[in-house]
Amino acid sequence: MEFNKAKKSLCMLAPSFVSIYEYPDIVYRLRALGFDKVVEITFGAKMTNLSYYQILKEQNDRTWISSPCPTLVNVIKGKYPHLIRNLVPVHSPMGCMGLIVKKYFPGYVNVFVGPCLTKKMEAQELDSVDEVLTFKELDELFKSKNIPEKITDSRFTITFDKFYNDYTKIYPLSGGLSDTLQYEDILKKKDILVTEGMANIIKILDDFKDGYYKNYKFLDLLACEGGCINGPGIDYKYPIKERIKRVKKYKEYATRYEKDLGRTGKKTQAEGLDFSRTF
Ligand code: SF4
Q: CA nearest 94: which of 112, 71, 117?
């Protein structure tokens, strides 16, 4: 990716960032690289969840399949087209956040940075995300521009820009979507199945009958073992258990200490935006 000073650029950082990078150093580093704004995807994840909640509440005529994982979506489109109607017709956190930042920061080149290769394909289907970089590609950019791991230059703002949500910081873990869905008054725990890894997913998709998978109402599925913290676009620095720990620890830290930094993520700020999508 080239930074063109004629056009401002905005980085939408996937919440799995903390599984490999240090916070808040990563925010400094992204700004030093040339991004004019750096936002977290977490508010987008909250809007994904709120849209899911409505659908799961209003339509129970099939077993719904989560749709933020483009690898899973591609497998369903290619091999199980009869199950396309089971994919929840809502944008992923990247898609939701793309719509939010296009509204609030018009004219920016909007770049998603995350652990996933197939997000590049998803972005091609959207008007709201201009480019996708994997963490591996980001590392190469840091290297080519000699951006150190620690920056203490006071020209760069320490925290993320506007929009924030703390509980969706666990989204990149397997089950992160359903754990943050706040479904208790519409679904029971036994209505939800959380699974990860392509082999497990294929078994489930093979076993669908007449639009249902057993008695489940919602399947929270991710193609990578362990979830997005184990995506193919990450240069693994820590074992997977450590990556999970880092995500949880950052969530706890943010909940305790970052509430008062002046950023919000209220539903009303996304009013008027349509987060539904088709597959
Ligand atoms: S589980 Fe893997 S393939 Fe799916 S969205 Fe996450 S990183 Fe991408």
A: 112
pLDDT in tens, 188-246: 999 999 999 999 999 999 999 999 999 999 999 999 999 999 999 999 889 999 999 99
The answer to whether 66 and 223 have CB atoms below 8 angstroms apart is no
Q: Per DSSP, which regions of the chain are E strands? A: 9-13, 37-40, 64-65, 109-114, 131-134, 192-196, 218-222
Nearest residue to 243 via CA among 148, 176, 182: 176
Q: Whose CA is nearest to atom 6 of ligand 1?
A: 228
Strand 192-196 to strand 218-222: parallel, antiparallel, or no bridges (unpaired)?
Answer: parallel
Residue with CA nearest ligand 1 atom 5: 69
Q: Which mutation among 41, 122, 224 tests ligand 1's pocket best, with the greatest number of atoms within 8 A of CB?
A: 224
Instruction: Identify whether the C-beta of residue 10 lies closer than 8 Å to the C-beta of residue 105.
Output: yes
Cα of 266 from ligand 1 centre, angstroms: 26
Strand spans (E) along 72-150: 109-114, 131-134
